[in-house]
Write a structure and sequence with these properties.
The chain has 365 residues and is an alpha/beta fold. The protein has 11 helices and 14 strands. The protein has a domain of 227 residues: Spore Coat Polysaccharide Biosynthesis Protein SpsA, Chain A, CATH 3.90.550. 34% of the residues lie in helices and 17% in strands. The chain has an 8-stranded mixed β-sheet, with helices on both faces. α7 crosses α9. The longest helix is centred in the last third of the chain and has 24 residues. The two termini are 40 Å apart.
């Protein structure tokens, strides 16, 4: 009989990431940590690539590990996360992205942190593993945190130093989020996240909604630097186009949060996110901006300077926020979706337009 009091269920939602997933799982199975103290749940969120076959091979090659492949066809990260939670056997849930590689000390550090019965959430460093040379301007998107160290929330990266410390739950990012089972259910679970583009109106604030409610409930969250991961950053995530899409998405997320806050669904709301400031920075002149590139001495175009980059990101954020505000304001059914108490039992309220596009789900993440 497995002792579930310290048993860790590692939950990995994935969608068409067969190029990254094997490295994440190999990173876990090669840790110097007893395999009978954890399980790995791979939640395939409707992949159309070779994910299923790769998972079957991984399971066959690692008979000493408990690895389960679970197919969840409902679109969006919410469905995958909650499916994993419903299937998990442990009392500690560790949610990770499929493009991370854990530190050698990762699982041992998570387990050690939860030896304190008052700790409900654990996070750690998330260090970039760039698959290419990052543009110079990317370094300027890192910012100081209240806990020391720096963070780049746009890429879910942070380094809060080399000492354990208590932190606001919002500083535990979804790519490496460990939580007690009881705390997850007590806080109501995750919120909608990462829908295909044509379902963007159903987007919510993902793990941020969860961590804000954990804060409201007084749950203790800790940062353990040894419970860290490397986050793989491919070249396509180091482009201006990516950051504009990322900020549109953030605008939608924050609009969702604001609707719930205005309806009394968050208590001591302290949304700790640098991207929120972006809407306030230049909103009054954002639509007047034109993108100009600096020119080198020989006349060739260089990267846009940091001011122009931030202006484009601000404009994308504004567009996402405005889009969601308009969608919810003009659709009572969508407002009901936004104001659901929790999403353990739900279906996406497709309208006729959405139903016409259902076949796009597998193509549009």
């Amino acid at each position: 009989m497995t002792d579930t009091s310290s048993y860790i269920s590692i939950i990995i939602p994935t969608f068409n990431r067969d190029a990254f997933l094997p490295n994440a799982i190999k990173g876990i199975t090669t840790l110097n940590y007893r395999s009978d103290k954890y399980e790995i749940l791979i939640i395939d969120n409707g992949s159309t690539d070779n994910t299923e076959n790769i998972c079957k091979t991984i399971i066959q090659e690692n008979p000493q590990h408990t690895i389960r492949y679970i197919f969840e066809p409902s679109p969006g990260l919410l469905a995958a996360r909650h499916k994993g939670a419903s299937e998990a056997q442990g009392n500690i849930f560790t949610f990770i992205d499929d493009d991370i590689i854990p530190f050698p000390t990762w699982l041992a550090a998570i387990s050690k942190s939860f030896e304190d019965d008052n700790v409900q959430l654990v996070g750690g460093k998330s260090i970039p593993k760039y698959e290419g040379v990052p543009p110079a301007w990317l370094h300027n998107l890192w910012e100081m945190t209240p806990y020391g160290g720096t963070s780049c929330g746009y890429l879910s990266l942070q380094d809060l130093g080399d000492q354990p410390k208590e932190i606001h739950p919002n500083y535990i990012f979804g790519l490496n989020l460990s939580i007690r089972k009881t705390a997850l259910f007590d806080a109501g679970g995750f919120h909608p996240d990462l829908y295909p583009k044509f379902l963007q109106r159903y987007q919510g604030d993902g793990e941020t909604g969860l961590t804000m409610r954990c804060y409201d409930k007084g749950f203790r969250a800790v940062y353990n630097p040894e419970a860290g991961v490397f986050h793989c950053i491919p070249p396509q995530r180091m482009t201006m186009s990516y950051f504009e899409n990322r900020m549109f998405y953030q605008g939608v997320c924050n609009s969702y949060t604001d609707f719930r806050s205005q309806n009394g669904m968050y208590g001591k709301i302290t949304r700790i996110t640098n991207v929120k400031k972006i809407l306030l920075s230049y909103l009054h002149v954002a639509k007047k901006y034109s993108v100009k590139y600096s020119v080198s001495k020989n006349g060739t175009n260089k990267h846009p300077d940091l001011k122009i980059i931030k202006q484009r990101m601000e404009m994308a954020y504004y567009n996402g926020y405005e889009f969601h505000q308009n969608e919810v304001t003009n659709d009572p059914e969508l407002l009901k979706w936004v104001l659901k108490k929790n999403y353990w039992d739900y279906h996406i309220p497709f309208d006729n337009k959405d139903l016409v596009n259902v076949d796009k789900i597998k193509k549009s993440y």
